[in-house]
Design goal:
Blueprint (H helix, E strand, L loop, with lengths): L6 E10 L4 E9 L13 E7 L6 E7 L11 E9 L5 E10 L5 E10 L6 E2 L5 E2 L15 E2 L1 E8 L6 E8 L9 E8 L6 E3 L14 E8 L2 E7 L7 H4 L5 E5 L13 E2 L5 E8 L6 E7 L15 E6 L2 E4 L9
Parallel strand pairs: 7-10
Antiparallel strand pairs: 1-2, 2-3, 3-4, 5-6, 6-7, 7-8, 7-9, 11-12, 12-13, 13-14, 15-16, 16-17, 17-18, 19-20, 20-21, 21-22
Family: Belongs to the glycosyl hydrolase 32 family.
Keywords: Glycosidase, Hydrolase
Pfam families: Glyco_hydro_32N (PF00251)
């Protein structure tokens, strides 16, 4: 497990340079006392490992910018990919406050030659915009949700795609969460596109920390949402991390088909394929204890496999046959 004694650790993502695994994570000082205050003090830390169990913290990746800037409140969750020229790109969420004090989220990026020293690009490259995405001015949600960029290469070699936690401007308030979508030819300039899913009466107010993967030949998106932010039909499931199957990495995705992979005690599930044996592993951060208090810290890897047509956590010694 990865945790820090003096800080809360929560959202995170990985990069693999072929030699070491890199863990990028959000953290904030426990001196804040209130764990809910961590969101507006988040920086992006960095740790490395050779076995995905023992981690060594190294120099931080990013901190918030001096204002005024799109990330002058906090730097939030993202993803890392490598350009064919060898440059690493870290896409992240920049958080700032609107005049009314509500949170606005935009997407920016930083680059690095080595995963250690990062240089921010000037300004955001994407933000919520109509007619596809809800803005803060709707008044229907507690923030302007446009965050958690997950970037992947086009399966047919045609540039890059970004999946984004976003909301549609219409539909049931707690079912408006959609998989936002953008495309780029070069990772630097992005075109906003219509979402890969639609609002649903069986849906979610937000599909947080999206990740699209082909797991043992089957495309899936995993995301996180607590019951309090979902449609009433979802609240009894008490799911934390959810699985959403599809025919391709680019959907279209029907959120009504989502099913839970973890309960609410584990949040922000991430999938990673272990380099030496090809085993798919699930990680998560510890969300709450039995009393409902926030915990934090990232779990050790948990093997997953297909069983009965669903992706499930399994005993590593007895992996089921898909």
């Amino acid at each position: 497990m990865f945790d820090l004694p003096g800080s809360w650790v929560w959202d995170y993502w990985f990069a693999d340079d072929g030699d070491r695994y890199h863990l990028f994570f959000l953290y904030a000082s426990r001196a804040l006392h209130d764990p809910d205050a961590r969101h507006y003090r988040a920086s992006i830390g960095h740790a490395v490992s050779t076995d995905l169990v023992e981690w060594t913290q190294v120099a931080d990746a990013l901190v918030r910018s001096d204002g005024p800037a799109f990330d002058d409140l906090a730097t939030w969750t993202g993803s890392v990919v490598r350009h064919p020229d060898g440059t690493w790109f870290l896409f992240y969420t920049g958080s700032s406050l609107a005049p009314d004090g509500k949170n606005v989220q935009r997407i920016g990026y930083a680059t690095s030659p080595d995963l250690d020293v990062w240089t921010k690009a000037p300004g955001p490259v994407l933000e919520a915009r109509g007619p596809w995405y809800e803005k803060l001015s709707s008044g229907d949600w507690h923030d302007e949700a446009f965050r958690d960029p997950w970037v992947l290469a086009d399966p047919d070699g045609n540039g890059w795609h970004m999946l984004v936690t976003a909301r549609a401007p219409e539909g049931p308030v707690f079912g408006r969460g959609v998989i936002g979508h953008a495309w780029s030819a070069d990772l630097r300039t992005w075109q906003l596109r219509e979402p890969l899913s639609a609002p649903s009466a069986e849906g979610f107010g937000q599909l947080e920390v999206l990740q699209a993967e082909v797991v043992d030949g089957r495309p899936v998106v995993i995301f996180s949402c607590l019951g309090e932010h979902a449609m009433p039909s979802r609240r009894d499931s008490r799911g934390g991390t959810w699985v959403l199957p599809a025919d391709s990495l680019l959907g279209p995705y029907d959120v009504a088909g989502a099913y839970p992979l973890t309960d609410e005690s584990l949040y922000v599930g991430r999938l990673l394929r272990r380099r030496d044996d090809g085993q798919w592993l699930l990680f998560a951060f510890r969300n709450t204890d039995e009393a409902g208090a926030f915990v934090g810290g990232i779990t050790d890897p948990m093997p997953v496999a297909w069983k009965g047509g669903r992706l499930v956590r399994v005993d590593a010694a007895r992996l089921p046959i898909a």
